[in-house]
Specification:
2 helices, 189 residues, hypothetical protein yedk fold
Length: 189
């Protein structure tokens, strides 16, 4: 699953996509997010199929993308991120973890339709991060962006083994919190 992510590298966004953006350390569903399709554009992170405009889906399983009626006729986009948060269940609580690749912009496969917004395409988690959660965004290599946008379905998962993860503060639980401190490694007392 992907319920929150970070897009904070202003310099890279300006160099690669000529986009100026304020850093965000806690992007939540229903917010406007930067995607490429193939040009950069802001869209609402909340997908609804053409026939039901209030579904507000934020994720789509890659395994069922071509089967589910909700995603028939969807178009392709790519989310830009510096990392994402995921929560690990432990008994009656959840611990947040930050997932990233050192010094790299991440590209999440996504879908959208013209009537609503967009959703992140997810897949089974790689072995490196499956101890946190069983789902993760479908990560694209920069060379796969055009293939994805043009409709290719089978995507080689080239980035999975490079993802690193560490625990962060529960301050990320509130979308009102949006500062670089959210990325600090959590130190339990």
């Amino acid at each position: 699953m992907c319920g929150r992510f970070v897009l904070s590298d202003k310099k890279v966004l300006k160099e690669k996509f000529n986009v100026e953006l304020s850093p965000s350390y806690n992007i939540a569903p229903s917010q406007d997010v930067l995607v490429i399709k193939p040009d950069p554009i802001f869209m609402k992170w909340s997908y609804s199929p053409k026939w039901k405009d209030d579904m507000n889906l934020i994720n789509c399983r890659h395994e069922t993308l071509l089967e589910k009626p909700s995603f028939k006729g969807s178009l392709r986009c790519v989310f830009l991120a510096n990392g994402w948060y995921e929560w690990q269940r432990q008994n009656d609580s959840k611990k947040p973890f930050f997932h990233y690749i050192e010094n790299e912009l991440l590209y999440f496969a996504g879908i959208y339709n013209l009537n609503s917004g967009c959703a992140v395409v997810t897949c089974q988690s790689s072995e490196a991060v499956s101890h946190v959660h069983h789902r993760q965004p479908l990560l694209l290599d920069e060379s796969q962006i055009t293939e994805w946008i043009e409709g290719k379905y089978k995507i080689e998962r080239k980035k999975d083994d490079r993802v690193q993860v560490y625990e962060v503060s529960k301050n990320v639980n509130s979308p009102r919190n949006n500062s670089p401190e959210l990325l600090e490694k959590y130190q339990s007392i």
